[in-house]
Fold this protein.
Amino acid sequence: MSDIRAFTLSVAEDELVALADRLDRVRWPEQEPVADWSQGTKLTVLRELVAYWRIEYDWRRCEARLNALGQFKTEIDGLDIHFLHRRSSRAGAVPLLLTHGWPGSVVEFFGVIDDLVEPEDPDAMAFHVIAPSLPGYGFSDKPANTGWGVERIARAWTELMSRLGYTEWLAQGGDWGAAVTTAIGQLAPEGCRGIHLNMPIGRPGPDDMNSRDPNVHKALERLGFYQQWDSGYSKQQSTRPQTIGYALVDSPVALAAWILEKVFYWTDNDGSPWDAFSMDQVIDDVMLYWVPATGASAARLYWESFTDFGDGKVTIPAGASAFPKEILPAPREWVERTLTNLVYWNEVEKGGHFAAWEQPELFARELRACFAKMT
């Protein structure tokens, strides 16, 4: 089947009532015996978020935004793939494929789609935006069999762009989206004119361990912190995703805590996650895991592909934007080992791992600066 079907989201009121009941019956642990986030999500911050979720949060607002942007589904390689698709009214607009990561979703692009599609500046580059939900994420189907790693997703995305009638297009991604977009670059499908990453992928070489370059030293220091203190989620999801999946699918509070920890550590904030995002923004994202019950299926992508993250070389035109609070900053020389035709590189002044979500104006600026070199 190759049909494109419009998709309208309408969550049953009974599901929202059941969620409220679960939030009313939380059994909380005792408060952590440390003053910071070093043991994980802080109890006081999570309780504040859950109280807001229960009393003030309006899911119908998020639902209406998704429907207004234009939602569709199509079956590719046996799975129904959900995607946002919004076309520009501008002549010469370029098709742009945006891929999210974990613990993100297509709501990461809420703040940037309008500007990309219909920019206020008449001279600004405009795009037709296509933003699919990864298999097992959001409202895409959950794979029932193994094998849905990043290369297979890259091939599915290439088929999606062809199915939509786009013969020439660009691709962009961060986190898992960066891995998928890198895989698209490696496949080099005929229609893809270039890629951009907001999570530049690069690994240190043997000579880097003794480098005196401050950028290399910073990258190695952050890599050490990640491996020792920040990678427990990835170890669990890449080895035993089913085990953590029970908590993420059954408990909205466990799901929120799992995601909120990364929102805190991976954003450019001054000590609070609310410096980077509103509670509505965070809960919108949590709901795209809670409503379709994708805590386990999303985690399985780590089991499928974490050891292959960003492997291989890309020879088609590529660009990268390095945001200062990225999880694993990669100096340009590391990135060029993968992106061998790097035509754009910029170190952005602020922002973290969730670039489009956190800094939509800077994100749009970076894409236009990069893709101007490819069109």
Q: What stands out?
A: Residues 1 and 366 are 37 Å apart (CA to CA).
